[in-house]
Amino acid sequence: xxxxxxxxxxxxxxxxxxxxxxxxxxxxxxxxxxxxxxxxxxxxxxxxxxxxxxxxxxxxxxxxxxxxxxxxxxxxxx
Length: 78
Known about the structure:
Layout: H1 9-26, H2 28-44, H3 51-77
Helix pairs in contact: 2-3
């Protein structure tokens, strides 16, 4: 039997939200990328392309802030 603390969805979600709040407060590059994503996200729906292309554009757009989150986590850990 593993000795792990009991999983609590709400407690773990609050940790994630607090981490995101801290990221928005402290990382300037993430703020810039978040503004870019917010501005470009609605434009995906105005392009007259099929659903697969829209999904590909969405995944590509979300990759930018995700890479920044991973980069910030590595910087803080090291």
